[in-house]
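Hi support team,

I submitted a single chain yesterday and got back a structure, but I'm not sure I'm reading the token output correctly. Could someone confirm the output below corresponds to the sequence I sent? I've pasted both exactly as they appear in my results page.

Thanks,
R.
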Amino acid sequence: MNTTGNNLRATAVVVTHDRLQLLKRCVDCLRANAPARIVVVDNASTDGTAQWLDTQPDLCVIHQENCGGAGGFHTGIQKAYDMGAEWIWCMDDDVFPRPGCLHSLLRHADSEGTGILAPRRIMGDAVYSNDFLAFDLTHPLRSLHRGRHATRHVSQPTYIAGTAFEGLCVSRDVVSRVGLPNKELFIFCDDTDYCLRAQLAGFRILYVPTAEMDKHQFFCASNWTERQQQKKWKRYYMIRNSTYLNHHYGRNWAVRHLRGLLNLTGLVLTALLTAPFTQAYEMKDIPAFCRAWRAGIREQLGAITT
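Hi R., thanks for writing in. Yes, this is the structure output for that exact sequence:
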């Protein structure tokens, strides 16, 4: 692996679970970008991923139980930090950095106050982004995320408020002051939580449009019903963790208690209206959604136990 130049400042961290072919492509793209090290956290894969990883001498591999994306990044960032990384480049296995992506990010590593660098993600022929410009912690009838970045044409580096664990690059200073991702979130909102904690600690997040990554497109041949079925197991975490964020960080009673309830109400209504006509939801899903909201209000996190 070529580890010359500014890229030596960064260690890449990839979290994977049962997606060997995507992981191989991701690792090849990382090798082309030449970070100082590549850490792969395998969340108990059963598809041959563990065996393949053990044949890759240039990778630093960690095998652990399935702790979700949040637990994977908790482990991987800690490892990179302990290895002395100045910057920690974090991603799931379904994004693929284009040549020069890391170099483009690190060109801005010394921007004053910047603690997180975010790349531009591309899906097919279009920019893919769930990044946003600000947090709204005061208005219960508005989303937690204010100013969707996807609606703006951006050609120059610009500051944002939140991005995803899909190529974000975290400085060592952020880890020192903010700590690690909250592994108890398991999946969903762990990146939003981390960005918010970084901002509250005084760091800024810089979006760098010249740092490009491709994102794998899932469910491209699925209809609405099939997509809802395929994602249903994740809904518990989506409801619980978004409710937790609003409850934990909201600056008034209404945000802490009502915003999550409004989100729950929307999903329950969707289930009620569609269950008689499609297989997307069943009536038994509604009590599970309500349990998720209640867990978020009580800030009871962790993986679902069955």
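A quick pointer for reading it: Residues 224-297 form one domain. Let us know if anything else looks off.

Best,
Support desk
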